[in-house]
Design a protein that fits this description.
It contains nine helices and eight strands. By secondary structure, it is of the alpha/beta class. Strands 1-2-3-4-5-6-7-8 form an eight-stranded parallel β-sheet, with helices on both faces. Strand 3, helix 3 (about 70-85) and strand 4 (about 90-95) form a beta-alpha-beta unit. The longest helix is centred in the middle third of the chain and has 18 residues, at about 105-120. The termini are close together. Bound molecules: zinc ion (2 copies). One zinc ion binds near residues 6, 36 and 204.
Length: about 260
């Protein structure tokens, strides 16, 4: 039993064969999936999909790449979506991306702050995207505070020191495909130092497939590879620790495990 805490199943990459993608995921024990919005339209699509599939949940938010498009109407619509349905279990993905810089950095920071505030108002956890911007992201979180409902540092890419600071802020750490790569230099140490009750896994599909599928489209059915690697680094049995990480996610998102 696994929970894919970060997928983009409403993206066009899955438009042609989503039913088969979901069946393959269910067939390998991926019992819950969270599809993550990156724009207002994407957040609407994420919710529509989550309302159709019983094992899918949605997160609504504006990605730092799209921050330049965020206006008052966009924040208002995100708030409406977040309150419209209990299928929306988080605000995300939000944060800073100073690697691609598709939106100006100060705009990214302001849109990140606004969405932290939104999460606080609607009492939902945040899903944080952080690329090449660890110092700035941690500083915003220090000043603004992590919303009471908590959050996840998704596709964690920092070192042990960044991990410690995220854990101190009460955040969960999510590992994606890169933890399976032979050159995943800092990630094994991060996994070993994080407490068992603060780790979750994700695919970030269609991006970042685990090692055997590199170069191909990723999908939730590949999650067991990443989960098994995390369990191996922890020195724990794969199935039991996968289920443990699913429980962590269910608790954070306030979903009852049935
Ligand atoms: Zn991301
Ligand atoms: Zn993502």
């Amino acid at each position: 039993m696994l929970f894919d805490t970060h997928a983009h199943l409403h993206f066009p990459e899955f438009a042609d064969d989503l039913p088969a993608v979901l069946e393959r995921a269910r067939g390998v024990g991926v019992r819950w999936m969270l599809t993550i919005g990156t724009s207002v339209e994407g957040s609407q699509a994420a919710l529509t999909l989550a309302e159709r599939e019983p094992d899918l949940y949605a997160a609504v938010g504006i990605h730092p790449h799209d921050a330049a498009e965020a206006d008052e109407a966009a924040f208002e619509e995100l708030r409406r979506l977040a309150e419209a349905s209990d299928r929306v279990v988080a605000i995300g993905e939000i944060g800073l991306d100073f690697f691609r810089n598709l939106s100006p950095r100060d705009v990214q920071a302001e849109v990140f702050r606004r969405q932290l505030d939104l999460a606080r108002r609607v009492r939902k956890p945040v899903l944080i995207h952080c690329r090449e911007a660890h110092a700035e992201t941690l500083e915003i979180l220090r000043v603004e505070g992590v919303p009471v409902a908590g959050g996840i540092m998704h596709c964690f890419s920092g070192d042990a020191e960044v991990a410690r600071r995220c854990l101190d802020l009460g955040l969960f750490i999510s590992l994606a495909g890169p933890v399976t790569y032979p050159n995943a230099r800092k990630l094994p140490e991060v996994v070993r130092l994080a407490p068992e009750d603060r780790l979750v896994v994700e695919t970030d599909c269609p991006f970042l497939p685990p090692q055997p599928y590199r170069g191909k489209r990723n999908e939730p059915a590949h999650l067991p590879i990443t989960a098994a690697r995390v369990a191996e680094l922890k020195g724990l049995p794969a199935e039991a620790f996968g289920a443990r990480m699913a429980e962590n996610a269910l608790t954070l998102f306030g979903i009852r495990s049935t």
